[in-house]
Design a protein that fits this description.
The chain is α+β, with helices and mostly antiparallel strands. The chain has helices at 29-33, 119-124, 138-141, 148-154, 158-170, 178-192, 199-206, 210-220, 225-242, 249-255, 261-272, 276-294; strands at 37-42, 51-60, 67-71, 78-83, 88-93, 100-104, 107-115, 135-137. The strands form 2 sheets. A 6-stranded antiparallel β-sheet has the order 1-2-7-4-5-8. It has a two-stranded antiparallel sheet with strand order 3-6. A hairpin with an 8-residue loop joins strand 1 and strand 2 (51-60). 33% of the residues are buried.
């Protein structure tokens, strides 16, 4: 049977993992939760400088139509270990600069390593711009990872998979990288400070020339600073709309740093595939459908 609700992995975990009701970046979150399960695990101290957390998605849609899960991805690299009807293997997934759409069909699972913004580039020394909007077999990127995918998929629990991955990466020597530390600080500000809406504000706050900032972001993140800012603000907007904040779209657009409501609506529709108000109504309808199946009907 398909799992309806998201689940937290068993056992106490160290800090650093968002609660499962934090679904920012996931489009139509309540609808998605009816088609797949989601779990997250914290990264261990050895690799925590580079990895934000681990995540796993599982689904069983046998006898049902495929479902297309949509995400406004974060500006980071994910390494995934997958066993699905479409493909099986380990992959390096670069930053997705457009809406990411993944078909879920039959039975499948994905275990993912979400690197911090810039983390994969700092950890491996690679220019992650070459992976943008692409999924590359893991063994082609890291030759020493040959056989890792088989070991990860040979065990069933997320905790076991995390241990295998962290044991594999534990022996990799990494130098301190001050540029990576700066990238982390800049991205942290971009994500959490809603007043940062323009690249010139970023360059002024961190005293970094625009060309330097662009080179840093291409090398470590794989996308430019303007795109990163826009993506975070769009994620904020989609999250608020999904939660029912639709009273004043003009005020929401201004809060997110858009010139006006029309500017926000055009960009939102281009990235998400529907207008903001339509997205909000679809989200509310999906949430009500989930609630009606969980709560008893009053007589």
């Amino acid at each position: 049977m398909p799992v309806i609700a998201d689940q937290v992995a068993a056992g106490p975990e160290p800090g650093g993992v968002p609660a499962l009701d934090d679904v920012k970046g996931i489009l139509h979150p309540d609808e998605q939760a009816r088609h797949r399960s989601l779990a997250r695990l914290a990264a261990g101290p050895e690799i925590g400088r580079f990895v934000e957390w681990y995540w796993s998605v599982r689904w069983d849609l046998r006898g049902r139509a495929p479902y297309y899960a949509e995400v406004l991805s974060y500006p980071c690299v994910n390494v995934t270990f997958e066993r699905t009807a479409a493909r099986t293997g380990g992959f390096v997934n670069g930053v997705s600069t457009t809406r990411y759409i993944r078909e879920l069909s039959e039975v499948g699972e994905t275990f993912g390593v979400r690197f911090r913004a810039g983390g994969f580039g700092a950890f491996t020394g690679l220019d992650v711009g070459s992976f943008r909007d692409a999924a590359v077999p893991l063994a082609e990127v890291l030759l020493e990872a040959d056989g890792l995918t088989d070991r990860v998929l040979a065990v069933s629990s997320d905790q076991q998979r995390r241990t295998i991955i962290e044991d594999f990466f534990a022996g990799r020597e990494t130098d301190d990288d001050p540029t990576y530390r700066l990238v982390l600080r800049i991205v942290e500000a971009m994500e959490h400070d809603p007043e940062l809406t323009r690249v010139d504000q970023v360059t002024a706050r961190f005293d970094v020339p625009i060309r330097t900032l662009q080179r840093m972001f291409r090398r470590y993140i794989g996308a430019g600073p303007k795109w990163v800012l826009r993506r975070y603000r769009l994620q904020d907007g989609a999250d608020l709309l999904a939660r029912g904040h639709i009273e004043d779209l003009a005020a929401l657009a201004a809060e997110l740093g858009y010139f006006d409501q029309a500017h926000f609506s055009r960009e939102f529709a281009a990235e998400v595939g529907m207008a903001p108000l339509e997205y909000a109504k679809n989200s509310i309808r999906s949430r009500n459908e989930v609630t009606s199946k969980v709560l008893p009907t009053e007589k």
